[in-house]
Amino acid sequence: MNKVKRVILIVLDSAGIGALPDAADYGDEGANTLLHIGEYFNGIDLPEMEKMGLGKIERIPGLSPDIKATGSYGKMAEASRGKDTTTGHWELAGIILREPFPTYPDGFPDEVIDAFRKEIRRDILGNKPASGTEIIKELGEEHMKTGSPIVYTSADSVFQVAAHEEIIALDELYDICKKARRILTGEHGVGRVIARPFIGSPGNFTRTKNRKDFSLEPVDVTMLDRIVESGKTVYAVGKISSIFAGKGISKSNNTVDNMDTVDAVLEYLDEMESGLLFANLVEFDMIYGHRRNARGYGEALMDFDRRIPDILARMKDDDLLVITADHGCDPTYKGTDHTREYVPILLNGKMVKEDYNLGVRSSFSDLAATITELLGVEEVKNGISFAGDILKS
């Protein structure tokens, strides 16, 4: 099967659609990002995704379940252990992790911190789980006085390094993170090392958009590798390239702002001939989910929804649009962490069946199996393709 020439895969970072059966194991029983945002607004206005069938997957206030969807729709369960960005995206690309990435609820052990101090020739501050905005409030002034970078983590498998841009220049901060990445392998192989630069003065610190992620290389072949090996291209927008450590990427634009990301998708659609355009809209998670800002999250969803017609207008008859997510981050839920949820999947294009319910898929990797089949490239190891189910005969 090779009927689709280009796939546009857009990940609404953290837009989960209901707690998975094992959510209680993660402390996430009852989480439902999209439902609870709809409830917060007393009915949210997402007419484009409503047409695609979002309200038929979950009874989200404001979205009708009684329309004829313009494409196919369903939801996917995460088969991997974990609820972080890397795990979710890797599974979307065909890798199922049987063991979760390591996390550090009590901070990193001495063997890691001592090696890190030695490598960077500086002391460190922090070394504990924390909100990124709160820890710079707490330790930013001391950091400015001492020059010691702030190290912190979260419920995710991350080693984060915060530094004021006037105290530690960006290039040095990135170099510090590269050194951390080399240390954090094996049993301490966290999913991502993240540079978290900030500016401002005590009491008025602000994180900048110069964040940079340093991910582990994927542990197996992904659909990105298969597509590039076939001679087609993989264009990455947002943090996709960093999530896959640059592997299987032909060209990338590391946008941060959601609307800049959509703009980059449109630009790539004008030049890309065949393959996969893979984009992540990070602000849903980074700006609104973790900060438990339901209003901001909902408004960002509505902003994206208004841009969908721009994407559809650039699509050709043999293009496929896929909208999905990588995990949840319910802004109405307790804490500030990701939530273990199903993710929605909306598929649209001239060749896609209308009003077709895919039901519940057992793994995100079903999408990788589907995309590789539709593009006519070698399959990945995991996933069950639904390509034959969604194409018009």
How would you explain this protein's 3D organization?
By secondary structure, the protein is of the alpha/beta class. It folds into 2 domains: 6-97 and 219-390, Alkaline Phosphatase, subunit A (3-Layer(aba) Sandwich); 110-214, 2-Layer Sandwich (Alpha-Beta Plaits). The chain is 34% helix and 20% strand. An 8-stranded mixed sheet has the order 10-9-11-1-12-13-2-14, with helices on both faces. Strands 3, 4, 5, 6, 7 and 8 form a 6-stranded mixed sheet that branches. Helix 6 (132-146) links the parallel strand 3 and strand 4. It is globular.
Q: Key features?
A:
alpha/beta; Alkaline Phosphatase, subunit A; Alpha-Beta Plaits; eight-stranded mixed β-sheet; six-stranded mixed β-sheet
Question: Can you tell me the residue ranges where pLDDT is under 50 for at least 5 consecutive residues?
Answer: none
CATH superfamily of the largest domain: Alkaline Phosphatase, subunit A
CATH architectural designation of the largest domain: 3-Layer(aba) Sandwich
The CATH class designation of the largest domain is: Alpha Beta
How far is it from the N-terminal to the C-terminal residue, by CA?
A: 12 Å
Q: What is the SS-derived class?
A: alpha/beta
What percent strand? 15-25%
Q: Indicate the radius of gyration in whole angstroms.
A: 21 Å
Number of helix segments?
14
Percentage of residues assigned to helices = 25-40%
Number of E-type strands: 14
What is the H-and-E element order? Answer: EHHHEHHEHEEHEEEHEHEHEHHEEEHH
Shape: globular
| Main sheet characteristics | 8 strands, mixed
**How are the strands of the biggest sheet laid out side by side?**
10-9-11-1-12-13-2-14
Whole-number tally of structural domains: 2
Might you state the CATH topology name of the largest domain? Alkaline Phosphatase, subunit A
Overall pLDDT score = 96
